[in-house]
Amino acid sequence: MVIDVRDFLSGPEPALTPADTGHATASNINNTPAQQAIGENLWQEFEEELKKMDRIEINFAKSFSSTQKEILFKFWDIFLTEQLPAGAINSALEKNFAVYIIQNKISLEKVKEIYEMQKWKIGGLLGWIKEVESGRIKELNVGELINWCKKYDPALIELFIDWDFDETRILNKKDLKFMTSHLPIYNDVDYNTQIVGEEYKHAKKLLCYHLVSGIIPETSLIVTRGQMEIDLRDFLFLVYPTGSAKGNIKNLIIRLWRDLGKEAVTLTSYHEEQLIGKVIKRKRRVENGTGRNGVTRYRNEDQWIKNEGHFKADEILLDECKPLLTERDKTTSRNFFLLAMDKYGDNEMFKRLTENLDNPDEILRFFPKFNALFGTQPYKFREDYIILNGFLKRVTTDYLPQTNRPDSYFDSRLDNKTVITGYYDNLIDSLENLGSLLTELNRHLNSSPWTFADDFDKTFKECFKYLRSAGLFNTRKKRNYTQLVEWQLQNRLLKKSCLLALMKNETTYVTSEHVELAFLDLLEDFIIELDFINEKIYGKLDYGSVFGEDEKEEELFNFLYNSGAVSAETSEVTIEEFQNKIKEIYKTKEDNARRIYNKFKKNDLIDSKRVGQHSSKVWIASHMQEFTTATSATSDINVKAKYFELINKYSASAISVNA
Amino acid sequence: MEKDKSLFDNSFLPSVSVVSVADLEKRRKILLDKYKAKQPFRVTIGKSRWMPYETFNPAYNLREILLDEVVIEFDIENKDLALEGINLTATSLHNARIKFEIWEHGGKSPHLHVHNLPITHLSKEQLRAFKKFFIKKFVPAEYLPYVDFSLCGTHLIALEWANHWKGCYKIKTLIKKVD
């Protein structure tokens, strides 16, 4: 039996009973309809499910989402390591800590050590552990933890902001399909990199785009669409543990560019003169008339030679770029790199030695058009080193955390190599093939301008809406990062669409199909980039704090926010209470507290009013609360569904999607 | 694939476009009163405060999902895919001899309502678990990522025979009832 809803959409209304249409008697209406019978098997299966649920409760393994696990980990870490105010170690806290200890099989010996170190009495905790072990307490009560924070450490409430975050709609790395059928050079790239393992599929996809971007001549490097003007160079930032695939990728790039007559340089020094070059003064012997005896005379003349640096190369490869990104003495080189990676045409390198004149012969001036591959290991970075200075905005990131490889990984390396007969011959043929494919693409670009299909804009806007939402409807840190890079993300969608049009259809005419496919690839890039941000960047990426300029201001705002002081109607905080809180937080006296209060008022951070003769109200100014609602508009967009919809559309083989 | 003729034998009743406003109100009242006889539930006018349904008000346009009811919809931009999901789900429900209704409001996906399931004795947590289990049982695996599972808990849905609360859609109309 097959049902097709389309048959009913425009058809007549289905048969309704008199009770449906209002022709029923009162007795009809009040009759409770008979329950449906559902199969015995279905019940049995469900009962099995229920039993599992019960077991889960008894084992305390109530499944927390990864966000929730992370929050709890941070909370208990702070609890154990920081100095807490008097009375903070109360029964609510220890009861929940006992559940956490048992749930996570934490060594009681270690906890005892910490208690001893902190000079806390452990008796209460041990009592709660017995309660948990006996099964009388089964669940960790987050509400109690939040109430504890309100009372003893309001700043910690922030930890729980993402607690109820609905992860089911979030696209995670494990959901990604890494479709490759739309990338015609993928197989050659895959073969030539000699990298084994599913985890490198994304890197090889990125490499396809990178290589195509590397063959684009200056005349086609800039794409303009509306107010967007972008440069098609595609810089890669590979964050892999040592011994992963960086070397293979680098070697492929070097061999390929060498075959195509391009210059690829592996950087070992970051000195700015190595990067930009230098105008050198040399003596040159020039003729200076003829002497009395008819012999030609010479004189020495100054000559300026422009010795251009590595930025003139076609590709720059950095095996380990951490020093460049983080070391203070590399600031100048870092800034030159950032400038060189700006849009081609806006990235002029200018160098004139102090002893030189403004004469064009004595100045080095050029626009770099190199592509680059930055490699590093999964270190932790400070946000100001690679985000706030704009480095991450300019690159496409691939990130692999350090993992223990299974034996099968090493087995499969051998398997692949032995299965292919004439491996090295094939490799050379395949490299040649890849080179000719890229040369062919380059030929297509010679005189054609980039043009766009009529429906390009509509699809582009739609895809970008989803792309942006993937980051905005996410945990706080990822959301903050998205807000920092969303402008650049839009540029990247345009860049990838153009590169894909060229790679897939050898054309500079970009269609909505190219946008959708580029969106799929960019979404995967962005999900992985967000993971990198979440795991490897210190800080919250909110320019200091959401509320307030510093921790004290933030604490004051948290006090108001948690007391419900968000409007005149809801506030029960008086000006006097607020000033007392200022005294407590700033550890200051009344006069100074009043001055701080007036500063808040003057800067429109808070509002207040007198209530009757003896009372007053103070609350957070409404414009300050925009921070908390900025992303609500995007929450109804289901990025995961869109991703699978497009995967289904473009890949018949990917139809069996896991739930 | 041959379609089961008995399921496609629609009624002689007129299309909903010729049903008067008064008739639609009457149908809404009948439904709401029928639900009220089963259990207390809440209604709203748009996204306003939830209030218990006591007496009928023609302005009500959202209602709470009932305890013994499973509502399935697909959150997906491509309506063809949503319809396909509904078709396959409806087929597997029919094969399991489960009665259901399909309601269309002009949105992304029709709603598939399954009423009167023998589950009201379950606890709130168990109800949510049952509804999820039920959906996973009857919705094909490839459509599960699009299912709105939030409808398994306490949630509002558009009221039947009412103009959709968002304004941009149509009257939520019954397009198929399988008994």
In short:
The complex is a heterodimer of chains A (659) and B (179). Chain A is of the alpha/beta class and 659 residues long. In chain A, helix 12 crosses helix 19 and helix 21 (476-505) packs antiparallel against helix 22.
Strand content of chain A: 5-15%
Give the biggest beta sheet of chain A: 5 strands, parallel
Determine the CATH topology of chain B. Answer: DNA primase, PRIM domain
Secondary-structure element string of chain B: HHEEEEHEEHEE
The neighbouring-strand order within the major sheet of chain B is 2-1-3-7
What class do helices, strands and sheet pairing of chain A give? alpha/beta
> Biggest interface in this structure?
A-B, 52 and 68 residues
Stretches of chain A where pLDDT is under 50 for at least 5 consecutive residues are: 24-29, 54-62, 417-424, 626-634, 652-659
Largest sheet features of chain B: 4 strands, antiparallel
Helix content of chain A: 40-55%
Q: Give the C-level CATH assignment of chain B.
A: Alpha Beta
Q: Could you give the distance between the termini of chain A?
A: 25 Å
What would you report as the Rg of chain A, rounded to the nearest angstrom? 33 Å
Count of domains of chain B: 1
Task: Detail the topology: elements first, then pairings.
The complex is a heterodimer of chains A (659) and B (179).
Chain A lengths: L5 H4 L8 H4 L4 H5 L9 H19 L7 H16 L9 H13 L4 H11 L4 H11 L8 H11 L33 H8 L7 H14 L7 E4 L2 E4 L3 E5 L6 H14 L4 E3 L5 H5 E14 L5 E13 L6 E4 L3 H5 L4 H10 L8 E3 L12 E3 L4 E6 L4 E2 H4 L4 H4 E5 L7 H13 L3 H23 L5 E2 L3 H17 L3 H30 L3 E2 L1 H25 E2 L12 H12 L12 H12 L3 H13 L3 E6 L3 E6 L5 H4 L9 H12 L9
Parallel strand pairs in A: 3-10, 3-12, 4-7, 7-10, 11-15, 13-14
Antiparallel strand pairs in A: 1-2, 5-6, 8-9, 16-17
Helix pairs in contact in A: 6-8, 10-11, 10-19, 12-19, 20-21, 20-22, 21-22, 22-27, 23-24, 24-25
Chain B lengths: L4 H4 L12 H18 L3 E3 L6 E2 L9 E3 L5 E3 L6 H17 L4 E5 L6 E4 L9 H15 L17 E3 L14 E6 L1
Antiparallel strand pairs in B: 1-2, 1-3, 3-7, 4-6, 5-6, 5-8
